[in-house]
Amino acid sequence: MISQPAANTPDGPAADGPLDDCGLGDGTRPGGAPSRGTRDDGGVPGRGAALRRALGRRPNPRALASGISLLVICTLLTAGMLAPVPYVIEQPGPAIDVLGEHEDQQILTISGHETYPTSGALMMTTVSVDGGPGYTVTPAEVVLAWFDPTRTVLPRELVFPAQQTRQETSLQNASAMTTSQEDAVAVALTELGIPVTPNAMVAGVLDDGPAAGVLKAGDVIVSIEGQTRASTEEYQQLIGSLPAGERIDMVVRRDGAEQSVSVPTEEVDGRTRMGIVLARGYDTPVDVTISLADVGGPSAGTMFSLAVYDELTPGELTGGQKIAGTGTMDPDGTVGPIGGIRQKLVGAREEGADYFLAPADNCDQVAGHVPEGLSVVKVSTFDEALHATETIASQKSADGLPTCSS
């Protein structure tokens, strides 16, 4: 879709000699013969005077013009290949064992309930995206990515909303990750008969937003202006309906204790805003913490739920196998589709995974792109993902399990 013409030299030979690729000539014709005005007299008197006249001649205007033109062309081509373009490049990111550590920190920690030893690996998979808000890619990088089957080039507006800043993107990804973790934990606990109660929590606060320094990520909303609501969406609607520019009284639960705060507001697009992102959370007797620095998005839900279930149940869920996967996890246990499935398959295999749990709704993107040695199993719900993992553990293969081609 984007191509660059090869640099062309001016038509015909240069007036005063050959040109290099992006510079001026050396003042001689091919073979080193003097360009004009002198000859090798073999010692004939007058040779020195002729040489002095040749060295002192003025540059040929045609040669100078040709050299300058080529230099300009090379400069424009170089600048064009380095200029930012509105595309993003998706490529395989790391596959991370949720049962292990990431950046020297245990990913999954659980208190308030007995835990059991685990083995093998339950690997969440990621996609590295170049060219998002605050970052750029060049035409050269885009062209190289087009010829790499493990990478995908997409118009930026298909991935990121227009005018979205780097911080807003990070905050959005953090919110999606928080919601994913909360839903995954709730699904696993519900499967084990442990009660969970939904709440609304602050997933992130804009650094330059009105609520900065007042609210914190992790605050659970108890009430707003003395009013309680049943869901995150209803609290969002309540905030939007209040007068902009005035402070809003809230009660939040922070570190287990309730406290009152007064939060400034502003008007954005005709609605009242605090500069926060709310996420769905849950109250539960089991304290589950998932620590993953610099990783965002909702697609690890399926693997989070399996990891929590594994740690809270006797026996080793994976049977020592390395199982990777992806997929969002809805509160009702539905596994949802995600982006970048082809890159995630590659990343999983590169990290040594032998099996991959893929959302059923991504199967059309999986077929024909499975790395050699990787068995891909199709799943639609948490129960199906759990059954697939237990089957792989017991028979050390994915034989008999549904695939994206069956």
TrEMBL record:
PROSITE patterns: LON_PROTEOLYTIC, PDZ. Keywords: Hydrolase, Membrane, Protease, Serine protease, Transmembrane, Transmembrane helix. One of its GO terms (molecular function) is ATP-dependent peptidase activity. Signal peptide: none annotated. This is endopeptidase La. GO terms for biological process: protein catabolic process; proteolysis. Its EC number is 3.4.21.53.
